[in-house]
């Protein structure tokens, strides 16, 4: 007897293990999972209970309930500025964005093909590629100025030498706002990526699970104190001014994946959707949408009809937009707090951010220009490099996570699940679910996190840290 190789290839779900170990402890601040701290709007939950009895028990349409599809088109028009019919696009409902991603891979690539991901990546993208029998080619966006730069370098210099001739790259996967780094690809960069994809005939898959968590901030320095302020009022419809809205359907080859989990607090109900171009028949009389429908039909037939009904009630709720706005505001406040903490920690030499985030920080400090941060995560290295050299202590990110949870009551996710070296001790700190209503609680947890990181460094690097106080980080750095 044996089990499949693919069943063991995917990285272990450390987040689940950590949550199982510490999730029940009331005194531990949960900053590990990528969930939000609210559920669907109560009015929508009441509305669904009245409608459910009309569903019956039968199967529904494979691409999604027609009423929900109509509402999603409206949402795409109002929030994303895309007229689905006029732009010859199509929408298909799935059981969450994760399933949407698997469906897309199965529809655009055959086993033995390759897909390009960028590290740090969302771990399910990596696992899904393996499960679909694809080779994930992981590019390190950190060693280049940008994701587009990394892709361009790869396509010009390495593609022919590194990809065996029998293997074909089918797609490039980007996640913006990014889980885990929070970085947001601006339009110019997305267009560059789209042009490279066009030149090589690759699909471009864009995961937009955090589409509503895209914030513009400014870093101000007054009397040596750093303050982070948000620029855009979360009360405008998408929270984004027109000039930085995302372009949709670039070159008829971009496939967009959305989720109801984060924005609408519906993670447990499993509803996501795909927006894709309606292409002319590509192969054997079928186009991309046909292939997506066939895959959906085979794997889940369709997303749960009850969940689709709830999604419909959520989108139809007249208070939907204002609910969304107030949630964005709460998340924005937590993200601002998180990054304020991060910048102080960077200054104190206690953590390092990804090179692109460090560059954002440097530029902002120099010219006070606004910058974008998305999602609700901080991705940082808790054993920072010193004088440019890579110091690797005998430590692992998982050990650090256990240490922080056991001794400092903060639960964070290890960076290696996102593709970083475990010995470099990267961690992802999530403020999506924790302390959403309680900024003081969040500050307190961040203070403990700072103290925990300092103590870990002291243990591992014989570093002397005199005092850590998040309100006014005072750190003496004697090595
Ligand atoms: C980038 C990204 N895509 C997709 C998902 C999963 O979304 P869903 O719950 O809709 O499957 C997540 C969840 O953390 C995510 O971070």
How would you describe what is shown here?
The chain has helices spanning 5-9, 14-22, 42-51, 66-80, 96-108, 123-131, 147-162, 187-200, 288-299, 305-316, 320-347, 355-367, 397-408, 439-461, and strands at 29-31, 89-94, 114-119, 135-140, 169-175, 203-207, 214-222, 225-230, 254-259, 272-277, 352-353, 371-374, 377-381, 410-414, 426-430. The chain is α/β, with parallel strands linked by helices. Helix 3 crosses helix 10 (305-316) and helix 13 packs across helix 14 (439-461). The longest helix has 28 residues, at 320-347. The N and C termini lie far apart (54 Å). Bound molecules: pyridoxal-5'-phosphate (PLP).
Main sheet characteristics = 7 strands, mixed
Bound molecules: pyridoxal-5'-phosphate
The secondary-structure class comes to alpha/beta
Name the average pLDDT.
86
The CATH level-2 architecture of the largest domain is identified as 3-Layer(aba) Sandwich
The number of helical runs is 14
Per the CATH scheme, the topology name of the largest domain is Aspartate Aminotransferase, domain 2
> What string gives the helices and strands in order?
HHEHHEHEHEHEHEEEEEHHHEHEEHEEH
Give me the secondary-structure topology.
Elements lengths: L4 H5 L4 H9 L6 E3 L10 H10 L14 H15 L8 E6 L1 H13 L5 E6 L3 H9 L3 E6 L6 H16 L6 E7 L11 H14 L2 E5 L6 E9 L2 E6 L23 E6 L12 E6 L10 H12 L5 H12 L3 H28 L4 E2 L1 H13 L3 E4 L2 E5 L15 H12 L1 E5 L11 E5 L8 H23 L18
Parallel strand pairs: 1-14, 3-4, 3-5, 5-6, 6-9
Antiparallel strand pairs: 2-10, 7-8, 7-12, 9-10, 11-13, 13-15, 14-15
Helix pairs in contact: 3-10, 4-10, 5-6, 5-9, 7-8, 11-14, 13-14
Pyridoxal-5'-phosphate binds next to helix 5.
């Amino acid at each position: 007897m044996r089990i499949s190789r693919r069943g063991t290839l995917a990285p272990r779900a450390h987040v689940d293990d950590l949550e199982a170990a510490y999730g029940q402890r009331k005194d531990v601040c949960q900053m590990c999972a990528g969930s939000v701290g609210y559920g669907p709007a109560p009015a929508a939950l009441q509305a669904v209970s009245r409608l459910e009895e009309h569903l019956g028990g039968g199967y529904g349409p494979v691409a999604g309930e027609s009423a929900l599809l109509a509402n999603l088109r409206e949402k795409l028009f109002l929030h994303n500025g895309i007229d689905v019919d006029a732009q010859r696009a199509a929408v298909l409902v799935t059981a969450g964005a994760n399933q949407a991603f698997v469906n897309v891979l199965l529809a655009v690539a055959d086993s033995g093909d390759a897909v390009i991901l960028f590290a740090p990546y969302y771990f399910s993208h990596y696992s899904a590629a393996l499960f679909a029998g694809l080779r994930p080619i992981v590019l390190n966006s950190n060693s280049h100025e940008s994701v587009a730069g990394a892709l361009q370098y790869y396509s010009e210099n390495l593609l022919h030498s590194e990809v065996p001739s029998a293997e074909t790259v089918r797609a490039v996967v980007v996640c913006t706002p990014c889980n885990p780094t929070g970085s947001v690809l601006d339009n110019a960069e997305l267009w560059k990526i789209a042009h490279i994809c066009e030149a090589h005939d690759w699909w471009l898959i864009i995961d937009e699970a955090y589409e509503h968590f895209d914030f513009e901030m400014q870093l101000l320095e007054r009397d040596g104190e750093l303050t982070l302020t948000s620029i855009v009022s979360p009360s405008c419809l998408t929270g984004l001014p027109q000039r930085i809205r995302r372009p949709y359907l670039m070159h008829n080859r971009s496939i967009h994946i959305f989720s109801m989990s984060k924005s609408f607090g519906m993670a447990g109900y499993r509803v996501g959707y795909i927006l894709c171009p309606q292409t002319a028949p590509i192969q054997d009389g079928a186009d991309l949408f046909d292939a997506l429908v066939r895959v959906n039909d085979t794997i889940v037939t369709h997303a749960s009809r009850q969940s689709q009904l709830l999604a419909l009630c959520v989108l139809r709720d007249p208070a939907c937009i204002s609910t969304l706005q107030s949630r964005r505001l709460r998340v924005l406040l937590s993200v601002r707090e998180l990054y304020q903490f991060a910048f102080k920690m960077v200054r104190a030499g206690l953590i390092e951010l990804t090179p692109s985030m460090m560059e954002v920080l440097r530029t902002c400090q120099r010219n006070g220009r606004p910058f974008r941060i998305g999602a609700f995560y901080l991705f940082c290295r808790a054993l920072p490099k010193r004088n440019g050299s890579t110091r690797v202590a005998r430590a692992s990110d998982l050990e650090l996570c256990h240490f922080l949870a056991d001794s400092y009551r903060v639960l964070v996710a290890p960076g290696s699940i996102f593709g970083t070296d475990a010995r470099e001790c990267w961690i992802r700190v999530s403020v999506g679910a924790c302390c959403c209503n309680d900024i003081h609680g969040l500050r307190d947890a961040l203070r403990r996190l700072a103290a925990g990181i300092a103590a870990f460094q002291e243990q591992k690097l014989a570093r002397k840290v005199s005092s850590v106080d998040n309100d006014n980080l005072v750190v003496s750095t004697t090595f």
